[in-house]
User: What shape does this take?
Amino acid sequence: MKKILNDPGDVLTEMLAGFVQMHDHVELLEDANVITRRDVQKHKVAIISGGGSGHEPAHAGFVGDGMLDAAVCGQVFTSPTPDQVLAAIKHVNRGDGVFLVIKNYSGDCMNFEMAKEMAEMEGIDVDFVIVNDDVAVFDSSFTEGRRGVAGTIFVHKILGAASKAGASLAQIKALAEDIVHHLASVGFAVSPATVPEIGKPGFELADNEMEFGIGIHGEPGYRREPLKTSRETAVELLDKIEKETDFSSKQVAVLINGMGATPLMEQYVFANDVMTLLNERGYTVVFKKIGNYMTAIDMAGMSLTLFEITDNKWLNYLQTPTAAPGW
Assistant: This one.
């Protein structure tokens, strides 16, 4: 294992310290490993997300005006505890309620929902949405139903913008439940991730192999094959999304997401193939992002997210400026 670290056991602590050193608009709740805005605003619903670390810039990179108010950071690939989430809720609550964005993993769902109940016992209004955009597999390691992956970033952005615009807790809940039904993601890997404290890859792929549908923690996908070209891979991912969804409007936002160790050169080659295919299949792309947004440490691979835009307000929320450095 070659990584730029000190003690592998200190990777989370030192990463969060470095994040705060580099971004003056945030602060660290050290006892809870929570990154939060310094200027949490009054008279708006606070938006919180989080999960295991190793997915940077998710989730701390999306804390900022117009996006998240706090990110709860668990150990690498490990859900944060209910006490951590509760500390975040209590810190950002300004009386208008708190909304939790939860990726669909068993530990995240259990611990965030437990923190919600604990906060409500203290008189704080809390609600949540579970994001399950990964159409690769249904039921997998640590998941009932579909996993939550890179499409979660669109949820962060839209809810953050809606909150800033003055939406109530009930309105944000309704918006969140609507948009998650219009999200679909699927990814692939050409090499695995290595958790620093373990020191070896979480699975094995031969030099000439790739795996379709891999999870962001290295969970199994739906098929392993000899390495394909970029265009063949784009066809596979888009076919999978179309098979599992019914995006009848054909007006979409696109997110091409690197898994951590994929050069931008390769991401843009893949983007060229994706955009060409979408045009050939009659889609209208009204918003697009490319880069590392929801990674898996040093996994090489990418994911493709399509978000069907059926309400122009969603597009306006995506386009609203934000101070979050990861966006």
